[in-house]
Each structure stands twice: as structure tokens, then as C-alpha cells.
Write a structure and sequence with these properties.
The structure is a single chain. By secondary structure, the chain is mainly α. The chain has 2 domains: 191 residues, Growth Hormone, Chain: A (Up-down Bundle), CATH 1.20.1250.20; 181 residues, MFS general substrate transporter like domains (Growth Hormone, Chain: A), CATH 1.20.1250.20. Helix content is 80%, strand content 0%. The protein contains 18 helices and no strands. Helix 3 packs parallel to helix 6, helix 3 runs antiparallel to helix 17 and helix 8 packs across helix 9. The radius of gyration is 20 Å and the shape is globular. InterPro entries: MFS, MFS_dom, MFS_trans_sf.
């Protein structure tokens, strides 16, 4: 049985966790876009090497995720999330003082460890432990807040880079983890005070989830993360290959963030009345529709492409937390989520390189790659059945 929280306390938990997630994403996933070039230049390296170190960090996070999820299942998420802030701060501090490229790579490996313990998968597992099957709304709430991580993170990293330097920018993010994100995560309920009751006997002792369903969902996550990361790295180049001017490509790219947030508001309102499978199927169709529009109309469709892709990506981010909960229940949720997302993290690390090579070789036709992957994700979601 689920114990009810006062609505105000639930709001504070969502605000605290969402803000902490914003710091985590801004200081890891969105950091290389601003700091890779000066970071590499200080060691005489191409920015490609820094992005390679970041890709290694994502592989490390994939390896750590199942362990972190299992720990959250057993003891709650508060301690793991607080530990992730300490590890984030350590990795960022190592970047700030790195004397060589070897230490740079080591620092990114430490940041990857923190990513596996402290980003969305860990936050979703924490909310599942607190709210049980009622976690869909809070999950959407934290993604609404953290959806602004790039909006906040890129300008703040750029400002620190301009006025202080890239090493000082890393120090600034480390301090934000210690002085802001860590205290906010400390506000979460302790493991011994979890608000959701333990799983009932039928759920805890029932049959395990069908293996096919697990494989299908793991594929969906890997496919959608590939497309999301490929577009994040190469969207302006793709739109220019379609005939858009550089100015239009940049302006269209700026619409992705607002489109993601708008779609999450829709998920929080209208779509929450439906099963998460319905939302996920609708969202998975968005990128193929956007791609077909771009190939049919070229540059003038740049804005439509960005809005459709961004909206689909916004809802799919939530689906990565809500679908496993709705399909398989709360028992063992954290560990299961870690395993389901491990292939996605590994694929994500290679997406910019693979799609970049396709774009260089095929031009606009490279979008057929992501379109095909998106269609396969839709097919996998159609094969999944409601529980």
C-alpha cells in the first residue's frame, strides 16, 4: 500500500532532485560542447580526443549503472545520489588540476563513475523507491526541471571560460556539486524512511518479466539514445546538408530544448491519462516523421524537424523511467533499469562518430540511418504488451 505524502513535500522533493539533476547533466553531458576545444588545446590535443574521453566516461557509466540501481533498490537513493555529487566534484577537480592528457582521461573516467550513480536512471530508481507505481508524475517533474540543463549549463560554462578559464570552470562546477546539488540530494528521504511500502507478495514473488520484453525494451532505449545523441552532435550539419543556411540551422537547433520541455508538459498533463506505452509509441514516431519531412522539403523544413525531433526526445526521456515501472513493477526496479540502459549508454558513446561518418559520406541521406533505427524502435514498442 502506498502511503500518501503531502503535496507540498512531494513538490519539494521534485524541485530538489530536479535541480540536482540539472547540475549533474550540465557538468558532465553538456560540458564538452563548451570546454572540449580549450581543454584539448592546453594539452596540444584535438577536441576529438576530449570527446573520446567523454565517450569512455559514458561506457564507464554503463558499467556502473546496474550496481548503482541495485544499491538504490536495497537502501534507497539518497546516499547513492549524495555519493555521486562527491565523485562528480572529485572528477571535476581532477580535470581542473590535470597536468597531462593521461590525468585528463582518468578524470573523465571518474566523472563517468559519477554519471552512472547520479543521472536520470539513479533519480528514477530513487523516485520509484519513494512513490512506487505512482512515480510517473514525479519522474516527469524532474525531467521538466533538468530539461533546462543545456540552457543553464552552456551559458554558465561559457561565462566561466571567458572570464576565468576552463580549469576554473571545472572548479566552479565541482563547487556547485558540493554547495548546491549535495545539500539538495540530502533533503531526500533516507532509505529507512522510504515512503512507498515494500512490494506486496504477488509482485515480489510473482514470475520474472518475460525475457523478450526486456530485450525489446533494452533495444528501444539503445535505439532512441543513439538517435538523440547523433542529433545532439550533428544537427546543424544535417540541416545545412538539407539546404538550410547556417543561421537557420542554429536557430532551428535552439528550438529543440523548448520542444522537449513543451512535450514533457504535455506528458505531465494530457498524456498521463494514458499508459506509458501509448506515449512512447507516439514519441518514437516523431523522429521518423521529422526526417521524412526534412527529406521531402529540404531546408525550409528545418524548424519542423527540430520541433518534432525535440518533442519526441523529450517524452522518450521520461519513458525510460516510466515504461519499466509500468511493465515490470517496482520490485527490483533500480537494478533492472541499470541493465536496460547499459546498452544505450554504450551505443550512445559511439553515436556521434558513426553518424558523423555517415553524414560526411552520404550527406542528407545519412538521415535514413536514424530513420530506420527509429522505425525499428517503433516496431519494438508495438510488440510490447501492456501489463
Amino acid at each position: 500500500m502506498l502511503l500518501t505524502l503531502p503535496q507540498a513535500r512531494r513538490g519539494w522533493i521534485v524541485m530538489a532532485l530536479g535541480t540536482a539533476q540539472t547540475v549533474g547533466w550540465a557538468s558532465s553531458y553538456y560540458l564538452p560542447a563548451v570546454l572540449a576545444a580549450p581543454m584539448g588545446a592546453s594539452f596540444g590535443l584535438s577536441p576529438v580526443w576530449v570527446f573520446g574521453a567523454f565517450s569512455m566516461a559514458m561506457v564507464v557509466s554503463a558499467m556502473v549503472g546496474p550496481w548503482a540501481g541495485g544499491r538504490i533498490d536495497r537502501i534507497g537513493g539518497r546516499g547513492i545520489l549524495m555519493l555521486s555529487n562527491l565523485v562528480f566534484a572529485c572528477g571535476l577537480a581532477m580535470l581542473a588540476v590535470a597536468p597531462s592528457a593521461a590525468v585528463l582521461f582518468l578524470a573523465w573516467a571518474v566523472i563517468g563513475l559519477a554519471m552512472g550513480m547520479g543521472l536520470y536512471e539513479a533519480a528514477f530508481a530513487t523516485l520509484a523507491g519513494i512513490y512506487g507505481r505512482e512515480a510517473r508524475g514525479p519522474m516527469t517533474g524532474i525531467t521538466l526541471i533538468a530539461g533546462f540543463a543545456s540552457t543553464v549549463g552552456w551559458p554558465l560554462s561559457g561565462m566561466m571560460l571567458t572570464h576565468l578559464g576552463w580549469r576554473e570552470a571545472c572548479t566552479g562546477w565541482a563547487l556547485l556539486h558540493l554547495c548546491l546539488a549535495l545539500p539538495l540530494n540530502a533533503l531526500l528521504p533516507k532509505g529507512a524512511e522510504r515512503i512507498a511500502a515494500l512490494p506486496t507478495a504477488p509482485e515480489a514473488g510473482g514470475p520474472p518479466p518475460p525475457r523478450l520484453a526486456l530485450w525489446l525494451l533494452a533495444f528501444v532505449f539503445a535505439a532512441t539514445w543513439f538517435n538523440s545523441t547523433a542529433m545532439a552532435a550533428h544537427l546543424p550539419g544535417l540541416l545545412q546538408a538539407a539546404g538550410a543556411t547556417p543561421a537557420v540551422a542554429i536557430a532551428a537547433g535552439a528550438l529543440i530544448g523548448p520542444a522537449q520541455v513543451a512535450a514533457r508538459v504535455l506528458e505531465f498533463g494530457l498524456l498521463r491519462r494514458f499508459h506509458p506505452l501509448a506515449s512512447a509509441r507516439l514519441a518514437a514516431a516523431a523522429h521518423p516523421m521529422a526526417a521524412l519531412c526534412l527529406m521531402a522539403f529540404g531546408g525550409p523544413a528545418a524548424y519542423a524537424f527540430a520541433v518534432l525531433h525535440g518533442a519526441g526526445n523529450g517524452i522518450l526521456t521520461i519513458a525510460k523511467g516510466t515504461l519499466p515501472l509500468a511493465l515490470f513493477g517496482a520490485a527490483g526496479y533500480g537494478a533492472r533499469l541499470g541493465w536496460l540502459n547499459a546498452p544505450a549508454r554504450a551505443v550512445q558513446s559511439a553515436a556521434p562518430l558513426i553518424f558523423g561518418a555517415a553524414l560526411a559520406a552520404w550527406g542528407l541521406s545519412a538521415v535514413w540511418l536514424t530513420t530506420g533505427i527509429g522505425i525499428l524502435a517503433m516496431a519494438a514498442l508495438l510488440l510490447l504488451k501492456r501489463r
